[in-house]
Amino acid sequence: MRARVHDSQALEAIRSLEVISYLRATGWTQRDVRPERYSVWSRGNGHGDYEVTVPLSRFKDFALRMSEVLETLESSEGRSQLQILADLSISNADVVRISSNIAETADGTIPIEDAVALVQKARDAVLAAACSAIEPRAYFAPRKFDQALDYVRKVKMGQTERGSYTVTVVSKVAPVLQQQPIGELEEPDVEEPYERRVVRTLGTGITTIRAAAEVAAATGSLESFEEGIGSGVSANLCNALVGMVQDREFVRGLEFGFSWSRTRPQIQQEVPTHILISPDSLPVIEEAGRLLRAISPREEFELIGIVVKLDRQPDERFGRVTVLGFIEDRTHSIRMELAGEDYTKAVTAHDERKLIFARGDLFKEGRSYVLKEPRGLQILPADREIPPST
Amino acid sequence: MDLSQQKQEFSRAYVKAIAAVCGYATKDVSVDDDSVDLSLAARGGNGTVRSPQLDMQLKCTARDIISDTTVNFPVPIKNYDDLRPENVMVPRILVVVAVPDDVADWIYHSEEELLVRHCGYWFSLRGMPSTDNTETVTVNIPRTQVFDAAGVTAIMDRVATGGLP
To answer: Which of A344, B39, B102, B143 shows its CA 20 to 30 Å from the CA of A329?
Structure first.
């Protein structure tokens, strides 16, 4: 006995256009349409001809008619109405299912702290992919691209699913407008919509991270992660994956499932349906995330420190200034090039043993740091305490 | 089973018998919608519904409702309001089955024939005005609108071409 939907509220919530998208994507043919009234679809299979009439308006018998649509789909597909109903509402969306296979989920519950982390980090992972889809980088600063932030606001979370505790990320994507006959699918001429590129980038990013972690564990080199930046690998994505798991002891692995909108099928099969990240990869991924962040420039970095070295030859306009400052609570030597008044300020600060401030883009070069395009240089008042240097 | 349930089952059996003769399937309504008792439709794959389709509210009465040219049936206000709306995708009608007072007289059975008493009539309340009545609204169904095989076939033919019952 399959579960059936009798609840008129659930039936009223079905959207006609989603049903139509679903029918079109699953091989039904529109036979007749009365605009703003109904459209009639048919499909033949071994058990005879099936027909559904989809109401296109909020008729008084809308729920009743939708129940008949579901009954016919149930009969023609041999699947339960609940499954069909779930698919209907996401037929025009890409869905990512994320589950951390924790032992506690046998009874369908997980510690609330783990649930919070899973949802929060799922969001971070999507945001990281949304940024990589715009411009691949090793690390994205807290100020993200507006387009990526707008996208994340539109992403939905579906009902959690039983079994292992699963968070579903639902990303709606526009349907393909011209119908391509199955079997003759070719690469699209036009670029895919951004929504689709984000989910695909998330998929390729995670796939690459999984493979890179194996390589890195064997070679001890970060190279495989760096090479994957173009595929969506970033420090942010690494950190998001690592953060999804609170207690590695109890986790069998992180599992990602990808399913693509039925109304915009995935043409190149770059992303596997399932990706499993084993818990022993997590420390490698965590370290890779830290290193990717370290090698990536930090925009709008605010440097406060003490001038420890000045070097300008008489014929040079720019002088090289080395400042001892803090990067993430650790002291580092940071070089920058200054000219004119700024260089003079650095000399004064050095003379008077005062702190200076500068804002710029921080790059790591080899073992040392460089602050490029320094701006807003100023000598801080004497009462600013000099941070203790180690 | 009390008398009202017997009447309900009897009217369903009557409608199903006529539908069978016309080659249409009847379908119980599975949604929690009590304005439709039975739906009449063509049969699609695996017994699914296909067009044309007709929704029915069934009533069965032993009262004397037959006059010279009309059948005068008091429709409960709830059913009246459910049957009036024009914004329905599938047209709906009221079917009134008149039966004798005594249940023993509803059916006469011999080896030669099965006689079902008395007769069913159909009526579309579509577009009828709202009312201040609180209990019932009496509708006057022309006695020509008999729910028989010819009548049902004609209704379904009209519905199939986008018309009304």
So the answer is: A344
Q: Which two tokens stand for residue A116?
A: 């919070």
More confident residue, A222 or A109: A222
Token representation of residue A263: 């109304």
* Least confident segment among A39-48, A88-97, B33-42: A39-48
Give the C-alpha separation, B154 to B165, whole Å. 8
ipTM: 0.92
Write down the residue that tokens 């000045």 correspond to. A310
B98: closest CA among B66, B76, B69, B124?
A: B66
Please tell me the distance from the alpha carbon of residue A325 to that of residue B92, in angstroms, as a whole number.
81
- Structure confidence by residue, pLDDT tens digits, B116-125: 999 999 999 9
Q: CB B48 to CB A51 under 8 A? A: yes
- Count of CB atoms within 10 A of residue A323's CB? 26
**A-B Cβ pairs (cutoff 8 Å, strict):** 85
Q: Do A51 and B29 touch (CB under 8 A)?
A: no
In whole angstroms, what is the distance from residue B147 CA to residue B54 CA? 13
Contact yes or no for A64 and B49 at CB 8 A: no
CA–CA min distance A87, chain B (Å): 21
The dihedral region occupied by B146, where left means phi > 0, alpha psi between -120 and 50, and beta the remainder, is beta
Q: Report d(CA B139, CA B133) in Å as an integer.
A: 13
Run of H or E residues at A43:
strand A38-45
Subunit contact B48:A50, Cβ cutoff 8 A: yes
Kindly list the distances between the CA atom of residue B164 and the CA atoms of A61, B89, B146, in Å, as whole numbers in the listed order.
16, 11, 16
Instruction: Answer whether 0.80 is exceeded by the pTM.
Output: no
Q: How confident is the model at residue B2 (pLDDT cuts 50, 70, 90)?
A: very high
CA-based nearest distance A244→chain B, Å? 42
The end-to-end CA distance of chain B, in Å, is 33
Burial of B82 (0-12, 13-18, 19+ CB in 10 A): buried
A197, A199, A203, A204: CA torsion to nearest 10: 20
